[in-house]
Structures are given as C-alpha cells and as structure tokens.
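Below is a complete specimen:
___
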Amino acid sequence: MQLGGRYGWPQALVLVDRDRARSLGYDDPPPGLWDGIEPALDAVMPLSAPLEVHLQLTNRCDAGCATCYTGASPQGAKNEWGLREWCAAIDELSLAGVFHVALGGGESAHLPWLGELLSHCWQRGIIPNLTTSGLYDQATLDRVCALARRGLFGQVNVSVDGIGDIYQQVRGIDGFAKADHALRSLVAAFPDVGINTVVTRVGLLHLPELFAYARRIGLREVELLRLKPAGRGARDDTYQSLRCTDDQHRTLLPTVLDLARRHRLRVRLDCSMVPFVAHHQLDDGLLRFLSIYGCAGGDLLAATRADGRLSACSFAHPTPKPVTDLRRYYAEPQAFSPFRDHLHADEPCRSCTYLSLCRGGCRVVAAHVSGSQRDPDPECPRVIAYREKSAPTDVASAPRHRLKVLA
C-alpha cells in the first residue's frame, strides 16, 4: 500500500496482510493477474514482485564522472528504449504490484518525454522518483523544477559525493557548483529533495561537512551509497584508490548515527552496507523491525538497462529478459541467480547470525575481487578477519584475490 506523494502525507510504504487490506477498503488483485505463472515452491521468493525497480532510462550523459557505474557517454547505449517501450514497462510493473521506481541514467533529465512517463507512472499507481546529477544547463533545470512543482516526482535526489574540492577528487570533474545550484533550485520548487552520496575513502573523512551542508540548504535526507566496481568505477585506478579502508567500514555506523542526530537528518544506507552495520553485533530483532536488509537484488528490488534488459540490481550484469516480462521471469526458480541463493553461502557467512539479514553482502564487489558472485563479500569485517586467521603464514603463497582484499 502506497501513501504519500499526490495522495497524502506523510509518505510511507505500508505492508499489511490481505484481511487488513480488505478491511481498509482495498480490493483483491484483478482476476487473471498471475494466470499461467506458477512460482516454484522451493524458490527463495518472499514476494511476488520487487517493491522497487531502478530504471536506467538512458545511458546518455556528458559529464564523464570517473565513478559512473554505467560508463555513460554522450552517445548513450545501443538500442535504447523510448517513451512507448518504457510506458509498456510501467504497465507490467503496475500489474506485478511494484510500488515505486527510481528513474536514472545516464542523465534522464535530458529526455524530452520524461514528463509524459512520469504522468503514466501516476496513472498506473507507481510512484516515480528521480536520481539526477544536476549537471546540465538552466533550461533543463527549469524543466525538471517545473515537473517537480507539478507534483510529478515522489522524491528527487541529486548525486553529490562531497562538498567543493572533495566532489572533484571523487568524481574527477569540477561539477559541485552546478550540482549545488540544481539542489537549491529544486528545494525552492519541491519539498522532497535529498542527496545521494557515494561513500569513498576521501569522502568519508568529510561527511561532517556534507551533513552540515545538507541541513543548511534544507534537504530532507542523505542517502549513503557504497562504491561499487561497475562501469568506469571498476577501473583499478578508481576503485582501488577510492574504496574505503577496513577501518573506515568498521567506524561507518557510529559516524553516521552521530551525524544524523547532530544535524537531525534522515539517513538511508545502501543495502550493500549492511555487513558494516552487522559488524557492531546489534540485536537482529531490532534490525528486522527497522527493515534493515542486505543485498536485495533480484528480490526486494530489480533494475533495468537502457535497452530494457532486467538485472538483479543497477550494478549487476543484465539478463537477456526484458522488464516487460518481469512477472514471468520473476517466478522462475533460477531468476537472478545467484542473488537469491544467499542461504547457501560459504563460510564465514554460512554460520553468521546475520546471514538472513545481510544475505552475504555485495555480490558485485565479490565478483570483482574474487571472480565469483557467490563468494562472501570480501570487504565485510568478519570475512576479512576470517581470511586473516586462515591465511597461509607465507604471504607469497596466499591467493591473489586475498592479497587484493587485504591491501
């Protein structure tokens, strides 16, 4: 059940059982919704569809950021979908029961039909949120602000990985002034504006300045994302130089909690950061109550490429299946494998109290470091400690990927 946006305040995502939904006046799903689709009984599939889907509407972007997870370019990708195809995708997501979509790119703000797609989302009962760089001309910014004033976004988040020079150190481009201008313009037009911040080795040191800035200009939230080795961000001169150290990962949670309290800001953590939360051995019942879950790819969320192909998350390799076939593919036992197979994890994840919450950590990082998506997250503090304990005393004989993790 969706509350908020055009339909009420405050915004919320509320999960209720069927009897409660009926008591509130909500009808059952239309007949025929799942005709011909029989989910396998042994599939690890707690939901009939993702709660959210991240749509990469285009891979066109002129910015050229060093950390771009899609490797976006001014030319974009081959066979990118247009308005007609994305509207058909929204139809499928609506029938599947998806709650909201995150529209990204590339840079979706440049698309001339963005407003039409937003209207179509609302017509189909799906809340559209926008993630944008803010790195565009005034005419494009004015158009995005106009769409925001019309109430066509559930939320808008601008990507800002640091203030001033820190932004340039992380992204490799001098774009903070434009991003700042976009943020201030959007705040003046629309109440639900936040920032997405990729947490890096240098950026984590300057999180206090980032939180103070967010509070000062009136932002609603800060969403902290883990640096993942995808797109241009997979280059060793980027990922290895910018990824946080083990010590930084261990101090992430207390740092963020302190900043959130001090600046009274809502903070969201990327699901791939749960290993760093679980490291502090918090009560797992509390984590469940707060709905803190690890890698949700292929389960609570899914994603698409600009040509409509489905993937477990925005950073994972795409499947051959189009998003317009979501319901059928989602019901297959092997869909989004191995993202759904966390219960069969190797040690130390297999015996970890938090496995059902953490789900083995980030599979994209694991694949980049060790070559296998099924391996435990190599940046998890517990995994690092386990491997240090079991590592050969002769460092020269240690596996190459272990040396890379511990460097």
